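Q: What would this chain look like folded?
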Amino acid sequence: MKHLTTLFLKFSAWLVAILKPLGFWGAGAISMLDSSTVPVPMDLIISGYVWADRRHFFLYCLMAAIGSSIGGLLPFYLGRAGGELFLLKRVNRARYEQLRDRFERQEFFALFVPSMLPPPTPWKLFVFGAGVFEMKVRNFLVAVFLGRLVRFTAEGLLVLYYGPQIVTVVHDLARKHLAAMLTGIGVILGILLLIAIRKGMGKRRAGEFEN
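A: My prediction, written as structure tokens:
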């Protein structure tokens, strides 16, 4: 197992070495690989691009967000193809339907928020779940793209102001405070869901009043 891990890391490094000199296109291609199959230190790579070409930093962030949304389609479709059976082996039908209903009520934010967050957020798990619960492809692409764009742009701006080392600092903080971060996500999603429900009830009441 250790030997396979070493080979995999070498393969990842080899791919990055080939793609990185491609500039904007390299940022998009590496991000696509990271989201689909080959995990790479994407934030460190983007910080390197931004630091080397500060004038065009947003273009690197944009291409990385596009690549990530396209690459995420692979785990998304894997979830759609066989994810239901996978989950039903681990939870009962009632629990599965409860998870599905909860996801459908807040599917955009359930994917948008994790897409904004740095590692060790289990992003592919959220993507797989989006496929299992049959999120519309267009909504999936928009949620991932916007979330990733916010993440990479924020990191790019931090790099411009503080240097590439700030990315490592952020990742270390995220690892040390993962539980608090995930709790914060839950609170944010709950607030957004409450706002959405209230707006929906307000529109319904307005429609009834007009009728």
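Residues 12 and 62 are 22 Å apart (CA to CA).
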